[in-house]
């Protein structure tokens, strides 16, 4: 087996989900190479070379990879794909963009968002918002996989010493152009990397009331999330959404405040180790997955909770 | 310009699905079926382009069994002009669907193709991107805002951490995210009118596409259930449990 993991990075550091993808690659077994494509990404390649289990880092440093445009990324991955039995990336909005394009160009299926490796060709993945788990077997010569970021423990960031080899850029596809980005500067941990998350739902009533959660989050070092209802109501931006179509998280502690617990929300957080629900409706479905449920008015309970921390 | 929209027949998003006892799949008997919610957003976006005078015709395509005509009719009632059903009883997988759609695009030559970003049954999020690859077109996935210009579209995309804006050359494939628009409801007169709109039926064979799956589902199981938790009586008790029992805060 020869496995290519495509790295997600910020040109400086390789992001944690990529080390989860390396863990999945190790579960498959075989020689693991890491592709770092970007613009001015030497530092990220050097960081990637230190990931234990990676035998070689391929670096493609060119202007067209600076913003990971799908057309350019897919052309590059396909240009280096020869000889690999598996091409793997962590499930992120970036890999979800280019990996299916890679698979189609190779004329093979993609298996999205795997949560376990049964063998080199058999994997488990959630379907129906995680309400069922399918075990699927691929007959394709090359397996293109994305890996759910919460499904494997990431391998260490340091300890390895892989060689770094430059690969030439693929011909520029030139079908799309990056214009701008509006990325929120986080003062708190990223949702997918946080060990504690406190999320608000429709019960928060407005965006201002999320300040109640911010105070708790600051004390716990937690990230702040939201249900789709809270995002749709305009309380908070969409990048805070946890759920089937938002972020999938599995922190040590997930505190759901004023969230009823629609199946689409549960799909995004039910693998959390400990779940706390604070909701005034004692019949809210969130209580069915909560380890500790508190039936209370959140506007009383959250400040009280905050004061006791 | 002509806009092509894809629709998938899926279990309604409000249905709590049940895994079959023999683990062969999910129980689809007597279950309410609907248009995949992201495809409704795709239909809405296309219809709005037509209403704004930017598109002349909206063609809706579905790939699947004959009962997918119901979902095509829904799209027609929402404002699409005509439908195409590529009928097959095979459980078609994303790559095969993309190949079928490519064949339809070769015939129809739309300038813009709008698909949902994922279907809520398989949760694959692949078809639009694969279609773009097969056509050699640009792709703008997870769109929350679309602005059509002359030969290009400017698309704002939902990415981890925020938003990104790109421009893509047309023809292109756009996949819809939740916040692109809020789909309308079909009015009764439009539902009646939709019954008279044409649906062409063809097959993968007629389009020269092999839809045999390469991925086999060996079994489908319910997820591991969470052990039932407890209700605490007070915030004080909650903090105590988190500190001393779960040991997740200090």
General description of the model:
- The complex is a heterodimer of chains A (309) and B (250).
- Chain A has 309 residues and is α/β, with parallel strands linked by helices.
- Chain A is 26% helix and 28% strand.
- Chain A contains eight helices and 16 strands.
- Chain A has a seven-stranded parallel sheet with strand order 5-9-4-1-2-3-10, with helices on both faces. In chain A, strands 13-12-14-15-16 form a five-stranded parallel sheet.
- The termini of chain A are far apart.
- Chain B is of the alpha/beta class.
- Chain B has helices at residues 37-51, 69-77, 94-108, 127-135, 188-194, 235-245; strands at 2-6, 9-11, 33-35, 57-64, 82-87, 112-116, 138-148, 152-159, 162-169, 172-176, 199-202, 215-221, 230-232.
- In chain B, the strands form two sheets. Chain B has a nine-stranded mixed sheet with strand order 9-8-7-10-6-1-4-5-11, sandwiched between helices. A two-stranded antiparallel ribbon of chain B has the order 2-3.
- In chain B, strand 4, helix 2 (69-77) and strand 5 (82-87) form a beta-alpha-beta unit.
- In chain B, helix 2 (69-77) crosses helix 5 (188-194) and helix 3 (94-108) packs across helix 4 (127-135).
- The termini of chain B are far apart.
- The mean pLDDT of chain B is 96.
- Chains A and B meet through helix 3, helix 4, strand 5, strand 7 and strand 8 of A and helix 3, helix 4, strand 7, strand 8 and strand 9 of B.
- Strand 16 of chain A pairs parallel with strand 13 (230-232) of chain B.
